[in-house]
Amino acid sequence: MNMKFFDFFKRRANPSTNINTVFSSSFDTHLGQDATSFAAIDLIASAFANLQGDFFVKSDKKILKDYGLHELLNNPNYDETKFQFFYNSVKDYFNGNVYWYKYDNDKGEIVALFRLNPNEVRVSRNFYNQKTFIYKGVEYTSEKIFHIPSRYGYDGLKGKSIFSQCSQIFTNTTELDVFLNNSFSNSVGNRLVIDITKEFPNATEEQIQTLRNKFLSNYTGIKNAGKPLIKSGKIEYDKIETDYKDNRANQLVENRQFQEKEISKLFGVPLALLTGGEKEKDLESLYTLFIENAIKPIALQFEQSINKLIPIGDRGRIQFEYSYNNLLKTSLTTRIDAYSKQFMNGFLTTNEIRRKENLSEVEAGDTLFVPANLMPLRKDVIDAYMASAKLKAQQLLNTDSPNTIGNHSNLGDDKE
Fold this sequence. Notes:
Layout: H1 2-10, H2 35-49, E1 52-57, H3 68-74, H4 82-94, E2 97-104, E3 110-115, E4 121-125, E5 131-135, E6 138-141, E7 145-149, H5 162-165, H6 167-185, E8 190-195, H7 205-219, E9 236-241, H8 247-267, H9 271-275, H10 283-306, E10 318-323, H11 332-344, H12 350-356, H13 379-400
Antiparallel strand pairs: 1-10, 2-3, 2-7, 4-5, 5-6, 8-9
Helix pairs in contact: 2-4, 2-8, 6-8
C-alpha cells in the first residue's frame, strides 16, 4: 500500500498530476461561526502569514538565505503560496492540530510541505510509544507527518481547539448573531399591522393564515420590492414603531459589545483592531499589544516546531526565528529616529536599515559604526584609561603647586 502511494508522487512530473488531489487543501474545519470570531481569526492568520522568518547561525546571527529549509518555508509546495499555506495552517491551529506531510526527494531532503485535513487524521502510539498517523487509510510515522498541536490543551495525541475549550462563549456569540439576523430579517424595529376585523369580523384562524401567507408571498421579500400595497374594503394598515430605542434593542447592543470583548480577550486581539469602533492615538502601542498577545504565542510554537525540521547534525549551530518588525506600525518620523539611534550606537548597519525599508543595498553598507568618544568595555581598556587619568591628575596637581620643592612649574618663568 505504501509503495503504491509513493509511486503516485514519482509521477508528479506529469502536468496532469496534482499532489493536492491526495492532500487536499480545499477544506475548512469548524471555526467560530460568528462574525467577531471570524474577524479575529482572519486578523491573526493574515498577520502570521506575513511574518518573515530566517535561519541563523547561532554563533554570529548570520542569516542563511541559501539554506534549503529557507526556500521550503517560502515556497511550501507548488500549488499554494506561502500566504495561503500559513494562513490556513493558523486556522488549523485554532481547531486544535496542524498536520504537514513532508515530501522528501531521493536524498532524504524535504522539498515540499502539504497540509492535511485535521478531521481525517487519526493519531495513536505504537509499541515503542511513537506517534503514528492514519490518513486516508495509510499509516505514517513522525518521519512523514509533522504535527503541531495547539496550546489550548494536549492529551499526548492531539491538541484541543479553542472552540471546545471555550465552547460556551462561542455558543453564546453564535446564538446572539443568529438572533440578531432573524430579528432584523423580520423587522423587529417596524411591524406591519393588518386590521381585518371590520371587513372580516368572523374570519376563522385558517382564513387569517391564508391571508397572511398571501401577503407574505405577494408583498414581502426582494422579489416583491417596490410593489404597491393595495387597500380594499375596510381593511386597515398600520405599523408598530419600536426602532432601536426600546429596551430589547438596547440589551442586544450591550450583549453584542460584551461578546466582542470576550472574543477580544480569548484571541488576544485589541478591541480597537477587532471592531474598528475605537480610535487609538498610539498606533504603535496598539500593534505591539496585538503582536505580544495574539501573534507571538502562535509564532513561538511554530518557530520551535520548525526548528525540529532542521537535520540533527545542524541543530547545534543553526536556528530558525521569526521577525516581527514588518508588523509594527509606526510613523516615518518615529522610524527614522529609531534607526538613527541604532545606527549611531552600532546596533544596525546602513544595509540592515535599508532592508527594513525595502530599499536596495549599497556598497560598503555592512559596516557598523560607533561614536569616536566611546571605547570597548574591556578590563585592559579600563585599566589603561584609569592609568591615563591618574597621570593627568598628577600633572594638573604639579601645575597648580609651583612652589613645591622639586615640582616647580616653568610656566611664566620668562616673564618679569
